[in-house]
């Protein structure tokens, strides 16, 4: 199974709305996803002692990564980079097995014209450093606040098509490993 990482803990985020669309696409393709929604991280993971000993409540988040055949990271752009909570989550995962030779793909979103390009490029450096297999077809969603209607659907069908194409390609990419 693949795991989708919702890269923010902001309540009612556009990132979660986009992640729901990604989930629905994989489900339509017969590939259900496990989900690590960072808004659901246990508060005790943020205690400084968690670096040395992870709380038991973090185990499901850890297992979804370690048991995954591939990761789909949906990240917003906060201040020109990924949210701090996403980097912290990555830092809490064991080295090297969390990402070593694990396929990863990215969806970036942002309010501006670059659509999350900067955080995705930053995350590609991090995951590349950790020896993940980076899927090259990234999807960027610019002006995300205007791209989703009140029900969480894209007003521009071309965005969903890009996400569908990415999902089909990523499924094939993961199958190679």
Q: Tell me the Rg in angstroms.
A: 15 Å
Strand-residue proportion: 15-25%
How does CATH name the architecture? 3-Layer(aba) Sandwich
Unreliable segments (pLDDT under 50, ≥5 consecutive)?
none
Average pLDDT, rounded to a whole number, is: 96
CATH class: Alpha Beta
Number of H/I helices: 6
The profile of the biggest β sheet is: 6 strands, parallel
Describe the structure.
The structure is a single chain. With about 180 residues, this protein is of the alpha/beta class. It has one domain: Rossmann fold (3-Layer(aba) Sandwich), CATH 3.40.50. It is built from six helices and six strands, in the order βαβαβαβαββαα. It has helices spanning about 15-30, 60-65, 85-90, 115-130, 145, 155-175; strands at about 1-5, 35, 70-75, 105-110, 135, 140. Strands 1, 2, 3, 4, 5 and 6 form a six-stranded parallel beta sheet that branches. β4 (about 105-110), α4 and β5 (about 135) form a beta-alpha-beta unit. The longest helix is centred in the C-terminal third of the chain and has 19 residues, at about 155-175. The protein is globular and about 45 Å long.
Q: Can you summarize this structure?
A:
With 177 residues, the chain is an alpha/beta fold. The chain has helices at residues 14-28, 59-66, 84-92, 117-129, 144-147, 157-175; strands at residues 2-6, 33-37, 71-76, 103-109, 133-134, 139-141. The protein is globular, with a radius of gyration of 15 Å.
Itemize the secondary structure elements and their pairings.
Elements: E1 2-6, H1 14-28, E2 33-37, H2 59-66, E3 71-76, H3 84-92, E4 103-109, H4 117-129, E5 133-134, E6 139-141, H5 144-147, H6 157-175
Parallel strand pairs: 1-2, 1-3, 3-4, 4-5, 4-6
Helix pairs in contact: 1-6
């Amino acid at each position: 199974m693949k795991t989708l990482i919702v890269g923010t803990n902001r309540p009612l985020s556009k990132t979660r709305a986009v992640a729901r669309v990604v989930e629905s696409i994989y489900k339509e393709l017969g590939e259900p996803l496990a989900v690590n929604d960072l808004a659901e991280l246990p508060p005790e993971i943020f205690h400084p002692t968690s670096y040395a000993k992870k709380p038991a409540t973090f185990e499901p988040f850890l297992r979804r990564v370690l048991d995954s055949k591939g990761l789909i990271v949906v990240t917003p752009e906060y201040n020109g980079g990924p949210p701090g909570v996403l980097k912290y989550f990555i830092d809490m995962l064991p080295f090297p097995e969390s990402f070593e030779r694990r396929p990863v793909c990215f969806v970036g979103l942002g309010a501006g014209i670059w659509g999350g390009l900067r955080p995705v490029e930053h995350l590609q450096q991090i995951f590349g450093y950790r020896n993940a297999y980076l899927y090259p077809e990234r999807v960027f969603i610019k002006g995300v606040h205007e791209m989703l209607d009140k029900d969480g659907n894209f007003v521009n069908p071309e965005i969903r098509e890009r996400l569908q194409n990415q999902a089909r390609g990523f499924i094939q990419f993961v199958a190679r490993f």
